[in-house]
Amino acid sequence: MDRTTINRHLRAQFWPMLTAVGFQRKGDIARRRFDGGVVHVVEIQHRPRSAVFQVNLGVHLLTLDQQTGTSAPEPDALREYDCAWRGSVIAGFRNAQDSEFAYGRTAEEASESVAFLGSEWERQAAAFFGPLTVFPEDFHARARAMITEAPHPAHMRTWARVALLLHDPELAREIARAALPRVAERATALRDDLAALAAGAFESADGD
């Protein structure tokens, strides 16, 4: 099957599930906004030559751009790759990380592929978006969890910056200090950023 067939089934089966929970769709992208500058993004990425598609997920905190000195697109133009936190709905056909859904060889298989996406949507979307919805409570809880979860140091840098937004400089320093020993030697910019955060160099960046 082709992209046109899959899009027809997505319009019939998948997109209504998103609009029912507050997403607004434009083409292959749907977005919803929450108080505190939280934006959720769902973006369909097609690979017609391989006859597959992916469902990419993103969460962005608009005030984080002020902390990092960067500028993301307007909320209504955010793409998944613009977001601070990114993921995908996992299809899991080939392995536990596989995020590709097949177009299928027939219209029936295309419908089944989208139906399977729908069956996975609620569980996986809740796991991804749920902890990153309510600002500041959810974000403060996730920032605290970084000390024990210890993801990639680059992600910990993001969470240290979130802690500063939450007016918790001690947590920001703690996250940065936990990340520093695991920074690769060649990642000098990341190391410098974390060292500055660990030293409290940005604690007055918001004017406090």
Quickly describe the structure.
The chain contains 7 helices and 6 strands. It has helices spanning 3-19, 64-68, 107-129, 137-149, 153-165, 169-179, 188-198; strands spanning 24-26, 29-34, 38-47, 52-61, 85-88, 101-102. The chain is elongated, with a radius of gyration of 19 Å.
Mind sketching the topology for me?
Layout: H1 3-19, E1 24-26, E2 29-34, E3 38-47, E4 52-61, H2 64-68, E5 85-88, E6 101-102, H3 107-129, H4 137-149, H5 153-165, H6 169-179, H7 188-198
Antiparallel strand pairs: 1-2, 2-3, 3-4, 4-5, 4-6
Describe the structure.
The protein has seven helices and six strands. The chain is α+β, with helices and mostly antiparallel strands and 208 residues long. Strands 1, 2, 3, 4, 5 and 6 form a six-stranded antiparallel β-sheet that branches. Helix 4 (137-149) runs antiparallel to helix 5 and helix 5 runs parallel beside helix 7. The longest helix has 23 residues, at 107-129. The protein is elongated and about 60 Å long. The relative contact order is 0.12.
